[in-house]
């Protein structure tokens, strides 16, 4: 199988699984927000998850990503070290998680009181389980990525999404409220972690004959490489979650619900770009090791152009239809999320580039530089949130996210250019054509949006935009229909 075929196969599997994950997440969001929880309960649930995401940084560090990098390298160079790598990684994770879990269990009430939300104490106590199962679920995903067996990563993600939907809704229907929904998350990640660890053991660990000795310094190098990854991941999580946490501390749980809803919708839209970035990133490490940078450049440029061809029009369309969409689909009580989503539409374009680029930089050995960029923009995001949330409200958090992420994306693209020598004029020409197509598509949708008064009419407006986009990208030569059919089949 050629490298291109392998990438397409991995992308299809990853996209299918993430489609299952995102559809189940969308259903969970819809059912919880519209039928089962009020805005306060919905906001509290995701505010606590944001708090735990930041605590989880200490429990995870960057060891999983670092292990994936070395798994990718040693499965080719010295397979006998694979069992040693997996054992040392899992041991390290268990020790750190045990310490963090103990401290959280002991001090959960004090933490809830310090954040001004004593009612969140039961969530934080249960967070000990959440952190453990989420950590191992995500570890198995990145480990399979390191082995370049993406269908397994995809399966773990799909299981977690479906399980969360079933158990979160089930527990809320049993009368457990927002806390029940939280336990649904715990059970969902526990099931996906159990499946992932079982596959990792039987399909990989048990299939390698361990070398008699563990290569001297290998564990040390893996831990050292985890340091910049930890910094990057910490900055990334803080960048994504600190705004939600600050909205909850400075404003109200209802404001958190508005902000969370906007971010969740952007996450659903971004699933394909995340899938593509997750799929292609291991190939960059292999190509750099074999000095095939021309091929790596071709893959990245093609992926970036195709990603922008989808996400620039998608962002424009979201700005236009956000107002009828949220009140009609989620409920009029969530209308406060409309301006948040409209601002975050710009973030969709930025995050699509990030999803395509960030993992690739790790595999290219540029984790330290990415960590520095992410750390700086995370600090800037925190400071901007402190200024904008009290003065503008929840929309200020969205503005801070877009402003600081723009800088991070620019730095990432510069580093990729240094590594791969991107053909900038060619890329600029393609993106210029995409912007023209977007303008025409947006004009067509704007003409009919004022007439929208039902879900059927809203779907018709979206379909009009999609058809206009499809006709124009084919007419412009950006897409060859024959290549699309070949990729699908």
UniProtKB/TrEMBL annotation:
Subcellular location(s) of the protein: Cell membrane
Membrane topology note: Multi-pass membrane protein
Pfam families associated with the record: Polysacc_synt
Residues spanning the membrane: 20-37, 43-64, 85-108, 120-144, 156-176, 182-204, 303-322, 328-350, 395-415, 427-449, 455-479
Keyword ATP-binding: no
One annotated Gene Ontology cellular component of this protein: plasma membrane
Record keywords, A-Z: Cell membrane, Membrane, Transmembrane, Transmembrane helix
Family matches, as InterPro entries: Poly_Biosynth_Transport (IPR050833), Polysacc_synth (IPR002797)
Repeat is among the record's keywords: no
The protein's name in its UniProt record: Flippase
